[in-house]
């Protein structure tokens, strides 16, 4: 595309796009840059939260736009920033048949998210775990209750917070059959986990025995 100086395009559309760019950049600061390209002039018209070290008036790199026109929304696609860090981008075209308009490019730096993911993967890596000491936890009744409870919840395809009162009653009675209440303070522990009163737990146990 042959570059030519565009007319004064600091019009209502550009002012609106600048406000949109500033708003997006402010909301997602410091990870998002928003660039407005003037398609007719082939230059960068505006940058909010500059991450790419470009400046207004720089060549926008739109030489092939006439041969390969953009869709109204393109992306997200990945590109590399000047510092070697990855960015994910979306380009929004505002042109129509009468005016080439502008391109609004939203560039998200994913470096901070990748660093967080890598840190989490390292922290949660199972390769660093050692087997649970058998002698130390052989009689860990709380863990045994937790294991049984969450296996029961998984089979019922529900969650701890979604258990109905009838389901809690069934859990208590199932735990009783497994011998969970032989441990001292087990009733208090189970009542706390299931958000039940201690008297309610004993009521369910009496009904089970009857």
TrEMBL record:
Domain YheO-like: 14-118
Domain of life (superkingdom): Bacteria
Residue ranges of domain Transcriptional regulator DauR-like HTH in the record: 145-206
Signal peptide start-end: none
Pfam families the record matches: HTH_22, PAS_6
InterPro entries: DauR-like (IPR039446), DauR-like_HTH (IPR039445), YheO (IPR013559)
The protein, known as: Transcriptional regulator
Organism: Candidatus Pantoea deserta
């Amino acid at each position: 595309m042959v570059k030519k100086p565009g007319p004064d395009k600091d019009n209502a559309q550009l002012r609106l796009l600048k406000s949109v760019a500033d708003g997006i950049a402010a909301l997602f600061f410091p990870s998002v840059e928003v660039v407005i390209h003037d398609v007719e002039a082939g230059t960068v018209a505006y940058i909010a939260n500059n991450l790419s070290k470009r400046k207004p008036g720089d060549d926008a790199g739109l030489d092939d736009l006439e041969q390969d026109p953009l869709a109204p929304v393109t992306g997200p696609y990945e590109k590399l920033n000047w510092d070697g860090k990855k960015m994910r981008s979306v380009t929004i075209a505002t042109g129509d048949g009468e005016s080439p308009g502008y391109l609004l490019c939203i560039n998200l730096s994913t470096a901070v998210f990748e660093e967080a993911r890598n840190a989490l993967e390292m922290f949660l890596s199972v390769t660093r775990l050692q087997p649970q000491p058998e002698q130390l936890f052989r009689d860990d009744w709380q863990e045994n209750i937790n294991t049984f409870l969450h296996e029961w919840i998984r089979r019922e395809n529900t969650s701890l917070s979604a258990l109905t009162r009838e389901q809690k009653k069934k859990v208590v009675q199932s735990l009783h059959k497994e011998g969970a209440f032989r441990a001292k303070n087990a009733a208090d522990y189970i009542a706390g986990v299931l958000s039940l009163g201690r008297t309610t737990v004993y009521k369910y146990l009496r009904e089970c025995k009857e």
